[in-house]
Amino acid sequence: MTDFRTFVLKLIAAFGFPWLLLIVWPAISYQSIGPIAYDKEKGDELDGAYFFPMSSVNHTGGAIYAKEGCVQCHTQMIRPPQMALDGWRKGWGQDQSSRPAEPVRATVLRDYIGEKQAFLGIARVGPDLTNAGYRFENSTQVHMHLYAPQAVNEWSTMPSYRHLYIVRKQQGPDSPKALPLAGTKYAPKEGYEVVPTPEAEQLAAYVLSLKRDYPIPGSKALAAAPVKK
Amino acid sequence: MQTEASTADLNADNLRRAAIDRSLKGPVLFLFTNAAFWLMASTLMGFVAASKLVSPSFMDWGSWITYGRLQPAHLCALVYGWGIQAGLGVALWLMARRTAVVMKSGQGTLVTLGILWNIAVTASIIGILGGGSRSIEWLEFPQGIWPVFAGIFLVFAFKIVSMAAKPERTEGFLISTWYILAACFFFPWIFITANTLLNNLDLGAIGAGISAWYVHGVILLFFVPVGIGSAYYFIPKITGQPIHSAQLAQMGFWMLVILGSWTGMQRYLGGPIPAWMPSIGAMAGVLLLIPVGVVGLNHHLTTLGKHSQVASSPTLRFTFFGALFYPVSGIILALISASWSGSTLQFTHAWYGYQIVAVYGFFSMCVFGAIYYIVPRLAGCEWLSVRLIRNHFWFSVYGIGTIVLASVVGGIQHGAGLNDAANWNNTFWGVVMNSRGYVTARAVAWLFILWSNFWFLIHLLLMVAGLGRRSSAPTLLTHDHDDHLPVTEGVKA
User: What does the pLDDT look like over B292-304, one tens digit per residue?
Assistant: First the structure.
């Protein structure tokens, strides 16, 4: 059956070429991705090398982010200003004021180093979380969003992640971890309090660790932006 | 294809067909029945998930039923439970008929593997709902399951490919064989590549690109080939006209294979992967309009003048509408891919619309058509009720049409809201409110489809149980009453 053999060879050739070039080669070359040095001659004001310290991302929390399927509604990717307004949206970058001086920079490959797979996301039913670490001031705010999203924004369609929290009888003085739900309709019964489980703590730590706007070498404007680690 | 066959030859042909059908009865009916169950499950989950996008407190019964787990479980059931399972059934039967190979042994193995496949799908769904999701699109199931899927598929693929390698009959144009073979080759290749790389390497943003490529690969190089392969088989068979143009058919095939394998990364256009990768994906996604158009044209020219049979033959009606959804899916893919419209449609409901139009609108409708043809031959009885078939057809068509329209139009509004400069310091309130109507439409449409699938499942189960009509005349849609149906030439071949 030479016909059959030729046909199969053609299939392999037609598919194998893009497979090697688009999938295998980038996957392998990504394994040896290295830091880029800042260059004073190009106007960088920083020393050392750009290698976004993604080790600072909380991977344990990332696994909880994955299993709860947060990617279904939240992206983690800022598109460049010439393509979309992502960078200008309020609260999507470091500057939380309603009129940031600069758009948030688009995300780059090195922003996701250390992550097994970047959670770039499926849809934007909710806001982007690339720089969510700046949006929340502390873990309590994140917990409020997770436990009772509608207590934060009444119109929100985010589900409550109650299963990551424990409602328990209050013992002694208020626990510092207890969520400030008093006065909302999500408050527990009198004498009870809502505290996060370790999983919820990890998830909140993950969200707070999302800061992907470290200046990129060779871009003056961005190097001038304030740096926070 | 058999123009001047003598009566003796015809008899021999009929005997061989009957022998092929008998040899495949167990595995194929098993795959179809279980697939139909998963389709029901997926439809139900699709309805609940869509409702949750409107009101998150709907059916708020615990962690396992939150949107973030339900939505991937819904698609997992649709893809692995229904799509690939039913697709394998159709591929197996089509290939046996095309090559005239009677499967001599291995039925038991195939059924056993089919059972294993369904256990793996069940484990995947339970895994995702129970909190084992990995959030890799279409590969959310717990990591240990993928070798099971891959192994089982490879055995089925081997059976199908070995029929093509040693055919008993070689005459006739083999375009549907090509498509089935391509599906058998590419799915394991794509599936194993994606799983091996994503499970074993730290891939960062490249990993997101690979997972997008995986989803497009499964759609364009498994679902689409099985759907077109089936359409290329049944349209000529039922209209009694040969495929209009062999050149167009070949061109459509090779362009799909070449372009389809480059498509996918445009999902993250403007994202953190090297710019050439999404760009080439965007280009391929738009260029795919050519093979889509070519195949659409060929199908149209083959059906030309025989449209009355679209009304009467259930197989042709489903296949015809499935084939119509192919260009629709191509246009939606091009809109999502091209950068001018893609920047609006990226990360909106339009993506869901594309998945549904490709997997449900196009692929599943073609597979329904195939099932309406294949099952009576395997079960030895005819479909019971014209009304149930009509019911299945119309509720499916309206349901899918609604989902696709609502997702794409809703996606345009969704994307416009996200990108509107006037919204730059607004909350997501506007986006949530604007999409509410479209998502409600999606939920209602899933209810329609649930209704249609429920009766399809019952109808199929009755057939498999051998409780169909005992008649030599196929069930056609021309008369409302089941008695004295006219026998149309070519339908029962």
Answer: 999 999 999 988 8
Q: Which string of DSSP letters, residue by residue, matches chain A?
A: -HHHHHHHHHHHHHHHHHIIIIIIHHHHHHTT---EE--GGGT----SEE---GGGS-HHHHHHHHHTTGGGT----PPPTTT-SGGGSTTSSS--SSS-SSPPPPP-GGGGTT-SS----S--SS---TTHHHH-SSHHHHHHHHH-HHHH-TT--PPP-GGGEEEEE--SSPPTTS---TTSTTPPPTTEEEEE-HHHHHHHHHHHT----PPPTT-HHHHTS----
Which residue in A2, A8, A15 has the most chain B C-beta atoms within 10 A of its own C-beta, making it the best mutation to test that interface? A15
What distance in Å separates residue A16's CA from the closest CA in chain B?
9
Task: Report CA-CA distances (Å) from B377 to A75, B168, B201, B367, B492.
Answer: 49, 21, 48, 15, 9
Contact B191, B154 (CB under 8 A): no
Q: Tell me whether residues B66 and A159 touch, CB distance under 8 A.
A: yes
Q: What is the CATH number of domain A54-150+198-213?
A: 1.10.760.10
Q: How many CB atoms lie within 10 A of CB A101?
A: 7
Complex-level ipTM: 0.92
H-run or E-run covering B280: helix B276-287
Does the predicted model carry a pTM greater than 0.90? yes
Distance (Å, whole) CA B250 – CA B241 = 18
The model's pLDDT over B377-433, given as tens digits with 9 standing for 90+, comes to 999 899 998 999 999 999 999 999 999 999 999 999 999 988 888 877 788 888 888
CA atoms of B43 and B9, how far apart (whole Å): 46
Give the lowest-confidence range in B30-34, B89-93, B471-475: B471-475
Question: What backbone phi and psi angles, to 5 degrees, belong to A36?
Answer: -110, 135
Predicted pLDDT at A227: 44
Residues 21-80 of A with CB under 8 A from B: 22-24, 26-27, 30-31, 65-73, 75, 77, 79-80
Nearest CA distance, B431 vs chain A (angstrom): 8
Residue that is written with structure tokens 């090697």 in the block:
A20
Domains (ranges, CATH) in chain B? 17-464 (1.20.210.10)
A195 pairs with which residues across the strands? A166
What are the residue boundaries of the structural domains of chain A, listed by start?
A: 54-150+198-213
Residue A13 one-letter amino acid: A
Identity of residue B413: Q
- Provide the percentage of residues in chain B whose pLDDT is more than 70: 95
Phi, psi of A185 (to 5 degrees): -80, 0
**DSSP track, B22-79:** HHHHHHHHHHHHHHHHHHHHHHHHHHHHHHHHH-TTTT---GGGSHHHHHHHHHHIII
| Cβ contact A162:A200 at 8 Å | no
